[in-house]
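lol forgot to send this yesterday, sorry. C-alpha coordinates for the thing we talked abt
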Protein backbone atom coordinates (compact mmCIF):
# COMPACT_ATOMS: atom_id res chain seq x y z
CA UNK A 1 0.00 0.00 0.00
CA UNK A 2 2.94 2.29 0.65
CA UNK A 3 3.96 2.31 -3.00
CA UNK A 4 0.42 3.38 -3.90
CA UNK A 5 0.93 6.48 -1.76
CA UNK A 6 4.37 7.06 -3.28
CA UNK A 7 3.22 6.61 -6.88
CA UNK A 8 0.03 8.66 -6.64
CA UNK A 9 -0.01 12.41 -6.37
CA UNK A 10 -3.02 14.41 -5.24
CA UNK A 11 -2.04 18.06 -5.26
CA UNK A 12 -4.16 20.73 -3.61
CA UNK A 13 -2.75 24.25 -3.53
CA UNK A 14 0.67 22.87 -4.38
CA UNK A 15 0.68 20.41 -1.47
CA UNK A 16 0.47 16.66 -1.98
CA UNK A 17 -2.37 15.12 0.04
CA UNK A 18 -0.52 11.80 -0.26
CA UNK A 19 3.00 12.77 0.90
CA UNK A 20 5.70 10.34 -0.18
CA UNK A 21 7.32 10.08 3.28
CA UNK A 22 4.08 8.52 4.55
CA UNK A 23 4.16 6.04 1.68
CA UNK A 24 7.79 5.18 2.37
CA UNK A 25 6.99 4.66 6.05
CA UNK A 26 4.36 2.12 4.95
CA UNK A 27 6.85 0.48 2.57
CA UNK A 28 9.41 0.19 5.37
CA UNK A 29 6.74 -1.28 7.66
CA UNK A 30 5.94 -3.85 4.95
CA UNK A 31 9.54 -4.77 4.19
CA UNK A 32 10.68 -4.88 7.83
CA UNK A 33 9.16 -8.30 8.68
CA UNK A 34 10.57 -9.74 5.42
CA UNK A 35 14.07 -8.30 5.72
CA UNK A 36 15.56 -11.58 6.96
CA UNK A 37 13.50 -13.77 4.63
CA UNK A 38 14.36 -12.17 1.31
CA UNK A 39 17.69 -11.98 -0.40
CA UNK A 40 18.80 -8.39 -0.28
CA UNK A 41 16.13 -7.68 2.35
CA UNK A 42 18.51 -5.41 4.23
CA UNK A 43 19.39 -3.56 1.03
CA UNK A 44 15.70 -3.16 0.18
CA UNK A 45 15.13 -1.68 3.62
CA UNK A 46 18.10 0.68 3.25
CA UNK A 47 16.92 1.88 -0.16
CA UNK A 48 13.40 2.45 1.17
CA UNK A 49 14.88 4.45 4.06
CA UNK A 50 17.01 6.53 1.69
CA UNK A 51 14.02 7.16 -0.57
CA UNK A 52 12.02 8.23 2.49
CA UNK A 53 14.70 10.70 3.57
CA UNK A 54 15.00 12.16 0.06
CA UNK A 55 11.22 12.47 -0.25
CA UNK A 56 10.98 14.65 2.87
CA UNK A 57 12.50 17.63 1.03
CA UNK A 58 10.14 17.12 -1.88
CA UNK A 59 7.08 17.60 0.32
CA UNK A 60 7.56 21.36 0.13
CA UNK A 61 5.90 22.84 -2.97
CA UNK A 62 8.67 25.46 -3.30
CA UNK A 63 11.29 22.73 -3.67
CA UNK A 64 9.21 20.87 -6.26
CA UNK A 65 8.72 24.05 -8.33
CA UNK A 66 12.39 25.03 -8.34
CA UNK A 67 13.79 21.61 -9.07
CA UNK A 68 14.76 21.04 -12.72
CA UNK A 69 13.77 17.79 -14.42
CA UNK A 70 17.31 16.46 -14.07
CA UNK A 71 17.19 17.15 -10.34
CA UNK A 72 13.86 15.35 -10.04
CA UNK A 73 15.40 12.35 -11.77
CA UNK A 74 18.42 12.47 -9.47
CA UNK A 75 16.23 12.47 -6.39
CA UNK A 76 14.15 9.61 -7.78
CA UNK A 77 17.16 7.29 -8.07
CA UNK A 78 16.67 5.66 -4.62
CA UNK A 79 13.00 4.97 -5.44
CA UNK A 80 13.86 3.50 -8.83
CA UNK A 81 16.68 1.43 -7.36
CA UNK A 82 14.31 0.12 -4.69
CA UNK A 83 11.75 -0.89 -7.32
CA UNK A 84 14.48 -2.49 -9.47
CA UNK A 85 15.79 -4.58 -6.57
CA UNK A 86 12.28 -5.46 -5.37
CA UNK A 87 11.32 -6.71 -8.84
CA UNK A 88 14.50 -8.75 -9.11
CA UNK A 89 13.92 -10.28 -5.68
CA UNK A 90 10.31 -11.11 -6.42
CA UNK A 91 11.18 -12.48 -9.87
CA UNK A 92 13.52 -14.98 -8.20
CA UNK A 93 11.05 -15.90 -5.44
CA UNK A 94 8.12 -16.37 -7.81
CA UNK A 95 10.24 -18.30 -10.31
CA UNK A 96 11.25 -20.84 -7.65
CA UNK A 97 7.58 -21.19 -6.70
CA UNK A 98 6.56 -21.64 -10.33
CA UNK A 99 4.31 -18.58 -10.27
CA UNK A 100 3.42 -17.03 -13.62
CA UNK A 101 4.22 -13.57 -12.24
CA UNK A 102 7.93 -14.40 -12.32
CA UNK A 103 8.25 -13.25 -15.92
CA UNK A 104 6.27 -10.12 -15.18
CA UNK A 105 8.56 -9.15 -12.31
CA UNK A 106 11.57 -9.87 -14.53
CA UNK A 107 10.13 -7.59 -17.21
CA UNK A 108 9.48 -4.89 -14.62
CA UNK A 109 13.06 -5.27 -13.38
CA UNK A 110 14.22 -4.52 -16.93
CA UNK A 111 11.87 -1.54 -17.15
CA UNK A 112 13.26 -0.09 -13.92
CA UNK A 113 16.83 -0.65 -15.13
CA UNK A 114 15.96 1.36 -18.25
CA UNK A 115 14.26 4.03 -16.12
CA UNK A 116 17.35 4.31 -13.98
CA UNK A 117 19.59 5.25 -16.91
CA UNK A 118 17.26 6.69 -19.57
CA UNK A 119 17.10 10.15 -17.99
CA UNK A 120 20.84 10.45 -18.54
CA UNK A 121 20.13 10.34 -22.28
CA UNK A 122 17.14 12.67 -22.01
CA UNK A 123 18.57 15.31 -19.66
CA UNK A 124 22.31 14.84 -20.02
CA UNK A 125 22.43 13.86 -23.68
CA UNK A 126 19.67 16.17 -24.84
CA UNK A 127 17.66 13.38 -26.50
CA UNK A 128 14.34 15.12 -25.88
CA UNK A 129 12.47 12.69 -28.15
CA UNK A 130 12.80 10.06 -25.40
CA UNK A 131 11.18 12.19 -22.68
CA UNK A 132 7.60 11.13 -23.41
CA UNK A 133 8.34 7.41 -23.90
CA UNK A 134 10.37 7.36 -20.67
CA UNK A 135 7.51 9.06 -18.80
CA UNK A 136 5.01 6.54 -20.20
CA UNK A 137 7.21 3.58 -19.26
CA UNK A 138 7.58 5.06 -15.78
CA UNK A 139 3.83 5.33 -15.24
CA UNK A 140 3.15 1.87 -16.68
CA UNK A 141 5.91 0.25 -14.63
CA UNK A 142 4.71 1.85 -11.40
CA UNK A 143 1.09 0.86 -11.98
CA UNK A 144 2.08 -2.70 -12.97
CA UNK A 145 4.37 -3.06 -9.95
CA UNK A 146 1.64 -1.99 -7.54
CA UNK A 147 -0.84 -4.32 -9.24
CA UNK A 148 1.46 -7.36 -9.15
CA UNK A 149 2.47 -6.65 -5.56
CA UNK A 150 -1.20 -6.91 -4.61
CA UNK A 151 -1.53 -10.10 -6.70
CA UNK A 152 1.32 -11.91 -4.94
CA UNK A 153 1.18 -10.25 -1.52
CA UNK A 154 -0.52 -13.09 0.35
CA UNK A 155 1.10 -16.03 -1.41
CA UNK A 156 3.14 -18.37 0.73
CA UNK A 157 5.86 -18.46 -1.94
CA UNK A 158 6.55 -14.75 -1.49
CA UNK A 159 6.45 -14.91 2.27
CA UNK A 160 8.70 -17.99 2.44
CA UNK A 161 12.36 -17.74 3.28
CA UNK A 162 14.31 -17.66 0.00
CA UNK A 163 17.61 -16.81 1.60
CA UNK A 164 20.22 -19.52 2.05
CA UNK A 165 21.68 -19.78 5.55
CA UNK A 166 24.46 -17.25 6.07
CA UNK A 167 23.54 -15.14 3.02
CA UNK A 168 21.20 -12.60 4.58
CA UNK A 169 21.35 -9.06 3.05
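and heres what i got for the seq, position by position
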Amino acid sequence: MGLVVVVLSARFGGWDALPDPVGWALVIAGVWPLRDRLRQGGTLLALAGLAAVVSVALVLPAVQERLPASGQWGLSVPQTAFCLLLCGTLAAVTERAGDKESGRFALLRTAYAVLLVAPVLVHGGGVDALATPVAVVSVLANVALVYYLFVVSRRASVLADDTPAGARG
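Residues 163-169 have pLDDT under 50 and may be disordered. anyway ping me if u want another try
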